[in-house]
Write a structure and sequence with these properties.
heterodimer; A: alpha/beta; Rossmann fold; 2 domains; eight-stranded mixed sheet; 13 helices; B: alpha/beta; Pyruvate-ferredoxin Oxidoreductase, domain 3; 6 helices; about 20% strand
Amino acid sequence: MSEERRDVLTGTYFVIGDVAAAEGAIAAGCRFFAGYPITPSSELAEHMAVRLPEVGGVYIQMEDELGSMAALVGASYAGAKPMTATSGPGFSLMQENIGLAAMLEAPVVVVNVMRGGPSTGQPTKPGQQDVMQAKWGSHGDYEIIALAPSTVQECFDFTIEAFNYAEQYRTPVIVLMDEILGHTREKLVIPEPDQIRVVNRKRPKVPPEEYKPFEPEEDLVPPMAILGEGYRFYATGLTHNEQGFPRTDDPYEQEKLVRRLCDKIRRNKEKIVRVEEYMLEDADVAVIAFGSVARAAKAAVKLARKKGIRAGLLRLKTIWPFPEHIIERLAESVKSFVVAELNYGQIVREVERRVDYRRITFLPKFGEALHTPHEILEGIVRSVRGGKP
Amino acid sequence: MGRYEIRLGGLGGQGIILAGVVIGRAAAVYAGMNAVMGQSYGPEARGGASRSEVIISDEEIDYPRTLEPDLLAVMSQAAYEKYIGDLKPGGILVIDPDLVKVDDRAKKASKIYAVPATRIAESLGRRIVANMVLVGALTAITKLVPKEAMENSVKASVPPGTEALNLRAFNTGYEYGLRLLKEGEVEVKA
């Protein structure tokens, strides 16, 4: 007797990105959502409110985003794969506890469906203005993983990947969507359950009396005990030793911990980073874009090729850790770069760290709409002419 | 077939968004094609401007927004005024003639079809199904997506219990569209 599976709804659908991300979360094993609805991510929360009870999960509408993020950290320690969804203003409020999640190495996933900022900005318009906040939003030194889907299908696929990264590296993972993606309907194919790769956190291999909650293995990630299973530990936002106890005036423990929190991601950068390279083999000019903008950029590259310009696209599927090694390699083969993003200069700063700014044509856009392919094509033409219009 | 862009415009309450969902779902789920659909509407539940746009292709769809619609269907004068400028020269214009009067700008269209969707829906007893009448007519006029796929999509997209009425509206619109194709487009008086 087999019951119909309600967690992985294998089939073909026509849904918005917000819904696809919610289904991806459930397929990845997420059974806990705490959030505070905000445009343009509200449909994600709404869908989780309907779906989680069907699969034995819990949906909590919290009092605010601070509480949401705190609930995620607690749920993670209780063994759940937790998620929240928000947009710029809510993302700002979550930063304090995102830092706590980084410090406590709590696997959590935060979906940020980006809209126009700063502040409450333009709730119903798209933006890509939270690139830097995703990395530097909380205080102190820590690394983060951020993924950036470009299609509704990728909203599903990348949310699964976000949970897998969170579990594997014991870190908060951010999914950076945008309003266009969140609200655009597109084909979503949900595969059979056995076609979905799901990663679960490492569990202790030693008995409770030998367990040190922050003692890393070779990959710098400590196995994680679940609250209530008999493993005792102390979890604090203060600098702690491998036992978890505060070490607030020990420079050795501070360095050891901070290095490990950063290095567990830095050392695995090449395993984490995902990009799409489109027509770059013979390219003179490389367009760098992500999210919805990358779709405009791909259309622009096709237009440029029709005009005989050797253009290509580097689409960032992961934003953090930043794919510097790929940019460096590309800088050897292309003459110039075009960076297109729905903000006034964030990805372009990272590119400038590796490429002379005089080789870069920057195409900001302030978010009332997406760049058109022709706007990016103009940038490509300017770029191959050495920056002259 | 390549990329085909459809924009639907009207007022909140006319089912403009659902019409776009039905067309996109038919293409993506029931016809094995790709489809991308976007929408926008005012804060009002009824009476504000409402728009949906659907891009259909048998290839990967890169840019997710309409640039120059191949087909513009409008169910309000305001939508006509707002979007006629975007219609691709040589594209198709579909209007509800009881709600929209065209002018010189419509001459850029290669074909103009008048589908009195609201009146037809009223004759079926429910004005609210005017959108399905329109979708039926567009199915006949464009031949983009097979009729069967569209019918499946109507069934999957409307509220449970209303399938029969909506399918009747769809089929009435489809027959009307076939008749228009046979009789040719309407004469447009600018």
